[in-house]
Structures are given as C-alpha cells and as structure tokens.
Amino acid sequence: MSSFFNLDNPFFTGLNKIVDAFFLSIIFLVTCIPIITIGPALTALYYATAKSLRRDRGYISKEYFKAFKMNFGQGVVSGLVVILASFILYIDWNYAKGLKSNVGVILFSIFTALFVILFCVSIYLFPVLSRFKTKTLHLFKTSFLMSMRHLPSTILMAIIVLFFVLLVYLFRIPILFAPALCALLVSFLMERIFKKYIPQKEEEEESNGVDEWYLE
Question: What is the pLDDT of residues 127-168, one digit of tens each?
Fold first, then answer.
C-alpha cells in the first residue's frame, strides 16, 4: 500500500506528466495569441516538450520561455513565411479548383502537392530551429531535405499532427492538452532523426559541463 503513495510510482509519474502537458499547452496557447508569435511559440513548445516533459530536465516554464526568447526573431520570420506561403497557396488552390478545364486540374494538383510539401516542411521547421543554429534560408532548406529523406517518419508525424488538429476541431476541449501531447509524440520520431545529424563524442571526450540531454 505504501508503494502506491510513492511519488515515483508509475501512477503519480503519469499524472504529473498529464499536469505538465496541460500547463505547457496553456503557455503555448497564450503566447500564440498575437498570431505573429506562433513561430517562436512552436519552437519553444517542441524544445520544452523534448527536454522537460519527456526527459525531466529543468522546469517546463523556464525552458519554454528560454527557447521562446532565444529563437524569437528567427521564429517570427519563419512563422510569417509559412503563414504567407499558406495564404498564397490557398488562394491559388481555390482559383484552380474553380477552373473547369484540364489546366485547372493540373494547377489544382500542383498547388495541392505544394500544400503537402509546405506542411511537411513546417513539421520539421520549428523543431530544427529549437535545436540547431542556422540562417533562415538554410533552416527551410534543411527542413525540406529532412522531410524528404526521412519520408516514412514524415508521414507518421503528419498523421499525428492531423489527428490532433481534427480532434481539436471536433471537440474543442482537447486543445487544453493537445499541443504538448502532439509535440511529445512527434518528438519520439524527430529526436531519432536529429541524432543522425549530431556528431557523437567519444567516451573519453569531456562535455565541458554542458547537459547534452538530446543525446540520450
């Protein structure tokens, strides 16, 4: 009986994760309100989820706002690029949809494919920004190449994201925990990919006191 009240048992550990996911999701939603901050918010969401929610390193709010502040400028620019590109593609997609000709079918197919590519790139974009220091143009290029190179994982992550989007759209209430839970599930695939791009240190090399949590 005493083991049940042990805070380290699976029940309390799981309950704590649920509370943390709820708290992290609320922070994310609040920082998304200005719309233009959705880029740094998504970057911080992934960083705090991968580091604190999944690996129990640091405090969730502290890690979130650390990543939010550190990647604010580049996150805003990247987020606005994605939003603008999505808006333009949506207009073109609707225009092509209304054309009653073979040209319309071809254009509709092209814009649909571009939508899918942009969506796949966006899945990688902000996690990559949270982990690697690179220029914005190279950030988009890297995200595109990763999404194509690891296509099976990309498809699985896309399914996860779309599932939670649909869940929130249909029931609304899940929005209180969906962002963090979605990021958590994505992180299991994304972190496995990231490890392939991080140089592995030899056992005798010193880490210079840096917490290399992402290598675990």
Answer: 999 999 999 999 999 999 999 999 999 999 999 999 999 999
Tell me the two tokens of residue 153.
């994982």
For residues 74 and 136, the answer to whether their CB atoms sit within 8 Å is yes
SS3 content of the chain, % helix, strand, coil (to 5): 80, 0, 20
Helices then strands, counting H and E runs in the chain, come out as 8, 0
pLDDT, tens only, 3-23? 544 555 565 666 788 889 999
CB 164 within 8 A of CB 129: no
Residue type, 151: L
One-letter amino acid of 147: S
The residues, ordered by sequence, that sit 6+ positions from 52 with a Cβ below 8 Å of its Cβ are 20, 24, 58, 59, 60, 63, 64
Q: Which residues contact 109 (CB under 8 A, 6 or more apart)?
A: none
| Contact status, residue 161 vs residue 1, Cβ threshold 8 Å | no
Tell me what pLDDT residue 136 has.
95
The per-residue pLDDT for 204 is 43
| Residues whose CB falls within 8 Å of the CB of residue 47, separated by 6 or more in sequence, listed in order | 63, 64, 66, 67, 130, 131
